[in-house]
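Review this fold:
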Amino acid sequence: MLEYDFPLFRPPSEGNNLIIQATLGCRYNQCSFCSMYKAKTYRARPLDEVFADMDAAAADWPDAHRVFLADGDAYCLPTQILAALCDGLAARFPRLQRISAYATPFDIIKKEADEIALLKSKRLGLVYLGIESGSDAMLKRIVKGSAKQMEAALTKARIHGLKVSATVILGLGGKAHWQDHIDATATLVNGAPPVYLSTLQLGLESEVAPRFFERFGEEFQWQDDHGILMELRRLVERLDPSAPVIFRSNHASNALALAGNLPKDKERLLAEIDAALERGARLRPRWIRGF
């Protein structure tokens, strides 16, 4: 029986898929808003341990066809290690279709074109990337690199056919900086569109909140539901990506769930947001929102 090293995290879209822990924790682990891996020290797991987990998983779920490599930025592993993991999965799961992992922009930038192509040939062709914001001021506050690095990673992935599912955090700039946050994010996505784009809403666990507020550099004023919807509307209104983007705001943290393709469905999405602004239609009750 497969046993995990908890806590265990995965993207919402991987909820029905097999999870294999190739790493424990997150190598970067500096984002001021994130509490996901604070209880773990990063390490790459030995291959024999991971292969043993694969054997246990194959005994329980031989028909698994999609696999997510946990923990944090597992795409940071050396390409030869990732290739061996992909081969191990393919040997054990005959119906294997897709392998995915979290990545940082630095992980994507560091991979050479032939490395990305090799991993894609072994079915590792989707990574989840938290861009969070296109604003350098916001990225500095949350300790997440720069917009230039985000753009470089997204552009490299697009050129070489690596699918990226990117996330943006609504509410990250608070009431004072929301327009800069949203406008810069739209500019980034328009110029370097990911295949998938999702929104989350800012939420802070008690253990990371003090550092987030300290890094913000001034009093942080939370956005209410109306403010969040205005951010969402401004983002959708300004998104005109150079390639189609599959857009979602259906993460459990969001006040309003949306789904569509941009730019094709822009007017419908704006109409749904306007309905929520005018009548509070379809807003998730606060008690069921979460991460």
